[in-house]
Each structure stands twice: as structure tokens, then as C-alpha cells.
Amino acid sequence: MLPMNAVASVGDADELLFADDGQENQEIVRAAWRVLIVDDEPDVHRATTFALAGVTILNQTLEFLHAYSAAEAIDLLKKEDDIAVVLLDVVMEREHAGLDLVKTIRNELQLPDVRIILRTGQPGQAPEIETIHDYDINDYKTKSELTRTKLFATITSALRAYRQIRALDELAFYDRLSRLPNRNRFVDLINEQLQHKEVGNQMIAILDVDDFSEVNDALGHQQGDRLLLAVSERLRNNLGAGAVLARIGGDTFGLMGNQDTLDPVGILALFREPFAVQDDSMVVTATLGLVRLSNVLGDGLDALKDANIALKRAKKNRRGDYVVFSNEMGFDIRERVRLLRGLRSAVDNDRLFIVYQPQINLRTGQPVGMEALLRWRDGDGGFVPPEQFIPLAETSGLIVVLGDWVLRTACHELNRLRSKGWSDLRMSVNVSLIQFRHPTFLDKLRAALQDTGIEPAKLELEITESVAMEDANFILETLTAIKALGVSIAIDDFGTGYSSLSQLRQLPVDRLKIDCVFVSELNQQVQGGHIANMVVELGRNLGMTIIAEGVEDELQAQTLLAMGCHEAQGFLYAQALPMPELEAWLRARGKPARG
Ligand code: C2E
Ligand code: CA
Ligand code: CA
After folding, report:
1. Is the CB of 373 under 6 A from ligand 1?
2. Is 224 in the pocket of ligand 1 (CB under 6 A)?
């Protein structure tokens, strides 16, 4: 994992870094990419460093490390951080020494990020394709091919990939504003703690800054950000070294430590002094929800849920106070039971229906397809938002029948659109993990295709990034089976889950969907550049199409187009529409309907 003070080198590599050892003595250094040369011939080392002497790649110089055997290389890789590229001789002491070292790097040393370039003496010694694929080897070249120009190009592309991977790691696990671990990482850390047999007096807390959105609205985002930084700074300085501090939401922090460190009275007392925010000093209060880890049934996410229940209680009582979770707080359960009953009866009474949101080609503005989205109209004519009933349908298992119904209906509607002359459109259907894991999923998919006779490539399944990164083998197998049917696959909410690039590149994915959070930040300046940009670059490098969701204004659309994003959907073009309105919308876009 990235050390907190090294993350600045990721993504914005062209910036000068502060070597952050100690508060004083900050020395400005230009970061260098670390390249490890592994070869038993000293000449190769000399020739390589000579060829690359003084070059700058992606705004950084190169620093070389040298190993003359596999054992030396392993030592160095264990000892040294941040090695970006390994230039590796395939044949050293033994015929397979190089390939064995690759396996050690990936499997034993667990270094998935480092890019590996294999070099062989003669063309005939090419390692099998599978090895290259299985061990995520960037490139492989014969030594004679490695002229200065080729070497430069090869290392540049390896470094570009490395930078993307690290940026992705950072994105997945660190908050960009505070550089603190984010929610994903916090959950991981709780899980690690829970795995210890002795959780003893460990606790976690969620700290919510009271009325933060008012501060934000009144003084602007920038001032809001500064306040959050001041709060995180004070927490970090006062919690002591044994505690974990994370930013788990806009204005919420996650804390973990023993019960003395997480003494709620002491923590709330930290908010008595005003915070210095630029020239202002601001007084804010905070509310805390806590839970003892020994009380938690389940995993890190459950711990967080419990702390959140306590937090809600505390807020209801009085802001600026705290509540420790107790098991009697099984609140909400009655509410959930009521909602689930409602959902079951909605299924029975046809109060569920599907709306379709158009997707367009950003360059031409022409429709390319639509996403099917489920709606629930409750008895009083109002709507229950999907964010509420989908999770409920998932935990109750109802999503399996519901999802199957959505899939069939969407295929059927696509077929109908085709018969009316819209034969090029694609239909995207959301598939949740529970559905995906269900043993009959593939059969149902096959049946839906057969019964409606649609062209499989015109159907796309959207799985969320967190699903894509689940149990790797299972997912790979299922996705491969889906692809074998000709159906295409998109990764939804990309940028919000835990992605590992090496995993992503192995998955047969056609499209990445940039989450709307990253689209909405396009109208702001953000430190380190826009995530959307990185996703576009990443997807394009992997040969995927990129679609942005939640596009609400022209500026966002233009920015995305300039970044190289292919497609978009969002309120700028249309909301999700009932089928008759979708047809009217399509007609208005000039595609004549046949018949
Ligand atoms: P999602 O798949 O990320 O869907 C995109 C959501 O963004 C939709 O919300 C859509 O109405 C909304 N949206 C579209 N354009 C814009 C825009 O320009 N601005 C903003 N602010 N929002 C926009 P919706 O329909 O409420 O769906 C919410 C979530 O519910 C979906 O997120 C999806 O995860 C889930 N969902 C909906 N239908 C299904 C379904 O049939 N099966 C499954 N498994 N999940 C579904
Ligand atoms: Ca979706
Ligand atoms: Ca989404």
C-alpha cells in the first residue's frame, strides 16, 4: 500500500516533491523512476545505463538499481520501495532463472504493480505467451532489439502503465483531499483488526462534523475543504500513533484504536478550540458514534453499520454528543420489514416498471443505446427510490426474480425497437452480484436471448466495479461465459471500487462507465487532475470504450469529449424515460421509425 506521504508522486508526477522526512529540513527533490536491471552480464548493465543516461521520462529522471543474479534481485525488491520497472534477463544462471524470478515477484513478494520487461539473448528464447499473460509481463524483447530508441519507448510505456496502476491504487484506497485512507481502506483495516483473535478493547468511531453542508454552502467548497483539512490535522495530531484515522465520507471521519485513545469525551473536547481556516477562525462541533469491535457480529462493513446506527442515535439526541452502539439498537428492522412486504406486493401487483435512459455518442450526438432502470411506484402514487429498494431486494434474494424480469423485458423492448427500425441500438441492463452468483444466471441469460431473438452483441450487462473485483476466478469464468454468448460487458461506477489493473486487464470487458461523481467534479479544478481523465486514458489503453454517466451540462460533455471519452448519458440528453417517451425522444433525434 502507498505510504501516505508518497502519494503525491502518483498522477501528478511532474510536480516537485517534498521529501517529507520530518517537519523541518524539507528538501526539494525531483522524483526519479526506479528501474532495476537484472542481468548476469555486467556489460548489459553498462550498456543500458549508458543508453538511458540523463533521459527524462514522463517528467522524471531514472534511477538505476543493479542485480547480477535472481537472489540479488529478490533482496533488492524486498528492501527497496517503489521500484517501477524491472528489466530482466530471461536466461541467467539457469535456463529458467528469469521466469522463475517473475513468478517470485508476483506470487511470493506480492508485487503486482512493478512492470516487468523481459529480455532474451536470442529470438528463439521467447517465453510462452501464457507466461506473459499470467504473470502480467509488460513487454518482452530480444536484446538486439533494445536499441536506445526502442529501450526508451519500451520503458516509457512501462512507466506509463505503472503510473496508472499506482494512481488506481491511490484512487481505490486514499482520499484525495486529506490523503487519509478512504472508506474502502478503512473497512480493510477494520477487517484486519477483526481477524486478530484478540480484539480486546479496540473500538471504532465515526465522527461527523456537524452542519458541515451549511459551512460549505455559505463559504464555498474551497473554504469547506480547508476546514476539513484543519479538522483532520487536529485529529491526527491528538489521537496518538496507535490510532487509525480515515476519511470515510464528505464530512465524516473513521477512527480506530483502543478505548483510551477513542475516549469520546476527549475527542469531542478537541472541538472546543476554534479551527484556523486561512484568516478565519471557525467553531464547529462534531458528533460521534462508536462501537466496540468485540460487539461486532460480522465484518468491517457491519462494524461501520453499527457505528453509523450509533451516530444516527447521537444526532437525534443532541449534536456535539456521542453514543456507543449497543445490540438493542436493532432499530430500522421494523421499517425494513414493512418495505420488504411492500416490495413483494409491488411485484405481485405490477407496480414495478422499467424506464430507459438514452446513451449517446459524444462526437456525433447520435443515440447509441439505453440503460434499463427499475422503478417502483408505491400505493400512493409516489416513487420509492432504487437506492432504497434495490439493496432490500438484494438482501432478501428477491433481486433474482426481479433482475430476470428486467432482463427479459429489456430484451423484449429492444426487439420491439428493432422491428420499428432502430436496429443499431444497444440495451444495457444492470446486474447485481446476487444475481450474478446465482447458479441459474447463465441459463436465464441464454433463455432471454433465445426467446427474444435479439442480437446478443446488442445486449450489455452492467456490473459494478466492486463485483468485477470480487472472487477473481469466479468472475473471470462467468464473464468469459457471458462473452461466449456474444453479450457485451460494462463496468459500472468505475473509479469507486477497488480496482486492480492487473485484474481489470484480464477481464473481457467492453466498456468502462465513469461514475457520475467524477463527472460532476469536471466543473471544478481538482488537485492532481480529474479522475475522469485517468479513467479515459486507462480504458483507451486497454482497448475499451468509455461512457460517462450523469452528464448534466454542456461543459462536462465538451470536457469529456476532449479527453477522448466516447459516449455519455445524463440529464443533459434525457432522463430515464418510459418506453413510449423514449420512442418519441428517438424520433425527435431524426431516426425515422419503420412501419
Ligand atoms: P446506476 O446504474 O449508476 O444508474 C444511474 C443512475 O443515475 C440512475 O439512477 C439514473 O437515473 C441517474 N442519472 C442519470 N443521469 C443523471 C444525471 O445527469 N444526473 C444525476 N444526478 N443522476 C443521473 P436511478 O434510476 O435512481 O438508479 C439508481 C441505481 O439503482 C442504479 O445506479 C443501479 O445501481 C440501481 N438499479 C436501477 N435499476 C436496476 C436494475 O434493474 N437492477 C439492478 N441490479 N440495479 C438497478
Ligand atoms: Ca448502471
Ligand atoms: Ca453508476
Report:
1. yes
2. no
The Cα 458–Cα 427 span in angstroms is 6
Q: Which residues contact 82 (CB under 8 A, 6 or more apart)?
A: 6, 9, 34
- Say what the pLDDT of residue 405 is: 95
Given a contact cutoff of 8 angstroms between Cβ atoms, the answer to whether 530 and 568 are in contact is no
Residue nearest to atom 6 of ligand 1 (CA): 550
Provide the 8-state DSSP code for 126. Answer: P
What length does the chain have?
595
The pLDDT assigned to 129 comes to: 58
How far is residue 102's CA from residue 146's CA, in Å, rounded to a whole number?
20
pLDDT at 8: 33
Residue 509 CA neighbour count, 13 Å, CB half: 31
Q: What CATH number was assigned to the domain covering residues 183-325?
A: 3.30.70.270
Tell me the pTM. Answer: 0.67
Domain 349-588 has CATH 3.20.20.450: yes
Q: Is 386 in the pocket of ligand 1 (CB under 6 A)?
A: yes
All residue ranges of the chain with pLDDT < 50 are 1-28, 331, 595
Residues with CB under 5 A from ligand 2 (ion): 430, 462, 492
Angle of helix 183-195 relative to helix 300-317, nearest 10 degrees, comes to 110
The CATH H-level superfamily of 33-172 is Response regulator (3.40.50.2300)
Domain ranges of the chain: 33-172, 183-325, 349-588
